[in-house]
Specification:
With 393 residues, the protein is an alpha/beta fold. The protein folds into two domains: 132 residues, Aspartate Aminotransferase, domain 1, CATH 3.90.1150.10; 227 residues, Type I PLP-dependent aspartate aminotransferase-like (Major domain) (Aspartate Aminotransferase, domain 2, 3-Layer(aba) Sandwich), CATH 3.40.640. The protein is built from 15 helices and 15 strands. Bound molecules: pyridoxal-5'-phosphate (PLP). The site of pyridoxal-5'-phosphate has 13 residues, from helix 5.
Length: 393
């Protein structure tokens, strides 16, 4: 049996996904398919390297040495054909902290920052928390696919004198992996209007089928100077609780400002075990990652088939990247409150509410596919049964 079929009990491990779900969805029988972590054990080598480090028994202040940087450089070169330099890397405990720091370091109070809803909810709070203003360039949803409204993208930038754009690539929750043409077009507009690009590429390694992740900063030298990219092994290898990530930019000026903000918050070190896990995963995790991607593709295909065969009331979007499936539930003809309650109380599945990604997510729900096929099948069955039992309108 593949390690991705193993159902491992997570309740009682202080898991946000499993232990907090009961409180959040107010039901002890809820099946958690929400927050973006996976119900899979990390690669064997990572467990073994962590054990070895734990056995040493001393956990004093730890410095990320050149070896860790080399594994990052190798990883980005091998997986994304991007050759970066050692001094372009700044460590961070997480992508959300990186967004907080970058916004504070590179913009001023009152500045306008562009995002593309429906999008990862913290994109709103990292802007609002620092008294910057959210400007929206909503994605276009047409015939079951999301694309970018470039005309509006430029219009919003000009009209609001936008200073920064937070790109989500691959995009959570719509599952698009932006292609070269799309990235270059957005990049060119940003360069023309001197908009700094902060590219959240935490899902970079989680790209499916023939799709290819392209770091926007890798496309041209100018874009490299204009962009700060946030990466992390924590989404790829299920290490979110260990908190280790990094930012990359060739711009010395941006790097120094960001680094200074981290220092001023006393955040100049990484978690000892996080560093061990990051290095180990990048060195030894590639085969595991291939197995993971196959599992996510199979789970996605299964969910698509099941909904296609058994209901015309839920349509799932083609998933190019991430393990988060965006589901169009508008044919259920429910208000958002009814839809939420239906999934929670009738189906007893804990999904992410579409509107938490912005009002553009109305009528949608997000399902986490990074779980053993048995769990995915159980979730889909619960939803299909609830639809069957639903009184006819
Ligand atoms: C787009 C995106 N950015 C950032 C994060 C969280 O990053 P971190 O846990 O490193 O703060 C997530 C988690 O789901 C995400 O989907």
């Amino acid at each position: 049996m593949s390690q991705f079929s193993n159902v491992i009990q997570r309740k009682g491990t202080r898991s946000v996904k499993w232990d907090y779900a009961e409180q959040l969805y107010q039901d002890k029988d809820i099946l958690p398919m929400w927050v973006a972590d996976m119900d899979f054990q990390v690669p064997e080598a990572v467990i073994s390297d962590l054990k070895e480090r734990v056995d040493h028994g001393i956990f004093g202040y730890t410095m990320p040495d050149e070896n860790v940087k080399h594994t990052i450089i190798e990883w980005l070169s091998k997986r994304h054909q991007w050759k970066i330099k050692e001094d372009w890397i700044t460590y961070s405990p997480g992508v959300i902290p990186s967004l907080h720091m970058t916004i504070q370091a590179l913009t001023n109070k009152g500045d306008h920052i562009l995002i593309q809803p429906p999008v990862y909810p913290p994109f709103y709070s990292v802007i609002n928390d620092h008294e910057r203003k959210v400007v929206k360039n909503p994605l276009i949803y047409n015939k079951g696919r999301y694309t970018i409204d470039f005309e509006d993208f430029e219009k919003q930038i000009i009209e609001n004198e936008v200073k920064m754009f937070i790109l989500c690539n691959p995009h959570n929750p719509v599952g698009r992996v932006w292609n070269e043409e799309e990235l270059l077009k957005m990049g060119e507009i940003c360069l023309n209007h001197n908009v700094i690009i902060v590219s959240d590429e935490i899902h970079a390694d989680l790209v499916l089928d023939e799709h290819k992740h392209l770091p926007v900063a890798s496309l041209t030298e100018k874009l490299n100077e204009q962009t700060v990219t946030c990466f992390s092994p924590t989404k790829t290898f299920n290490l979110a609780g260990l908190q280790a990530s990094y930012l990359v930019t060739s711009s010395k000026d941006k790097r120094e400002k960001i680094k200074s903000h981290f220092d001023k918050q006393g955040m100049h070190m990484l978690n000892t075990l996080g560093l061990t896990a990051m290095e180990s995963a990048y060195l030894h995790g590639e085969d595991w990652l291939e197995g993971l991607l196959e599992t996510i593709e199979a789970n996605r295909d299964f969910v698509m088939e099941q909904f296609e065969e058994n209901t015309n009331q839920i349509k799932v979007l083609p998933l190019e990247g991430t393990y988060l499936l965006w589901m169009d539930c508008r044919s259920l003809n429910m208000s958002q409150a009814e839809l939420k309650s239906f999934m929670q109380k009738q189906a007893k599945v804990g999904l992410n509410d579409g509107v938490s990604f912005g009002e553009e997510g109305e009528g949608f729900m997000r399902m986490n596919l990074a779980a053993p096929p048995n769990i995915i099948a159980e979730g889909v069955n619960r939803i299909l049964n609830a639809i069957r039992e639903k009184p006819k309108a």
